[in-house]
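seq:
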Amino acid sequence: MLSAEFSFDAVKIGMLFNEPIMDVVQGFLEKNSAPVVLDPVCVSKMGHKLIKDSAIERLKELMKFAAVTTPNLREADVLFGDDFYDLPCDVIVKNTSSPVRASIRSTARTAACKTSKRR
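struct:
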């Protein structure tokens, strides 16, 4: 296995197409302590889901291994809806510059502050 030969300073995870792939990735993460950035590629720019609902639930379980998760706005909506409280890691929602999205950023920022104070 690759991790037996190399050490990692950080791990960046992109699209994980299905649950068997997620299982392999989880096995790797359980054996390594490097910080993880999880980019949950699960919704296209046009808003189409790229993975099954069951895989989305499995993807949320992998967040416990991440230092930060970086969904775009559509992915954040699929993963969290309006519930940014009690997340297993920090979340940075990408591509949120339009005024329509400002309330989502505000909700996420408020939730992050409240979550940080409880840590």
